[in-house]
Each structure stands twice: as structure tokens, then as C-alpha cells.
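Pipeline run #58 for the internal structure catalog. This entry was flagged by the ingest filter as a single-chain record with no existing model, so it goes straight to prediction. Upstream metadata was stripped on purpose; only the residue string is passed forward. Reviewer on rotation: M.T. Logging verbosity set to normal.
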Amino acid sequence: MAGRTPYGNPVPVSDLATQILDPVLRKRAGISIGLVQSWEEIAGPRLAGHSRPEKIQWPRRMHEDDPFEPATLVIACEGMAALHLQHETGEIINRVNGFLGFNAIGRIRIVQKPVLSEKARPKPAPRPLTSVEKAKLSDTVGKIEDDGLRASLERLGATILGERKRPG
């Protein structure tokens, strides 16, 4: 449910989530939710689909008088995106610094790992069944009286057989 302001106007849930998550991300990863949300604009659509900012690592300062040193932006990315990301490092540093409003980032460290969750990954379509496989599947589920159950089991069988290699 959305929250309400004192004036009775509804507040989007995304705004409430941002207010909750932003301080946690700042404390744990040194990164703002705004940077994560704007990653596609910063990195470009080609890289944003295969990468995401993980955290900002600030160098330790031993004393208050130590000079400011820029941080390292840790970016998680998949496979070949790492090579593309490496070639565009300078441009991404400039864009992130422009987004943050000061020269906060001096380096980028690339960490290769899966970025998309398993749910977001498209599953390959099963191969079409041969006529022999279709006939065998129809014989197997043909004696089931309930039409809905028979159709469901036939779809399940087609999916299972379609994921296997072709017989032969």
C-alpha cells in the first residue's frame, strides 16, 4: 500500500522504498539508489543490461588532514561486457562524476559475476517434437478422462521431451 502525506495525498510505494533503501545502500555499499536507478543512462543501454554498480570503495584516511582521494567504483558485469566496460572506463568515470556532482570516482574495478537473476534470464524454447514423439505422448496421456488434466500433462510431456536431445 502507498503511504499518505499529512495533506491526504497518496505517495508512490517506490518513493517510500527509496527513502528506506537509500540510507542502507549508502552505509553498506557507499552508493546511492539514484546511481543504481540511473545506471542505464550512465553506462548506456548496451552495457547496462549486462552490468550494475556494486559499491563505491573510499580509501581510508588516517587523519583528518589527509588530502581527498577519489574512490573506486566496483562494477559487476557478465562475460564479454567486461571487455566493453574496460574500453569505456574513462567515459563512465566522467559520467558517474557528473551524476554525483564532483570528482568522487578515480578508478573502476570490474568484477565478473552473473548480473541478471535466473528469473530474468530468458529460457530457451524447447525443440519441436517429432511425429513419433507426439504419437507416443498422445498414447501415454490418451486414457486420462479429464480434458484439462490431459492437456496439461501433454504440454508438460512436450516440454520435457523438447528439452532432451533429438533421438537418433
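catalog note: Helices lie at 13-29, 33-37, 39-43, 45-48, 81-87, 89-100, 131-141, 147-163.
catalog note: The longest strand covers residues 105-112.
status: ready for reviewer M.T.
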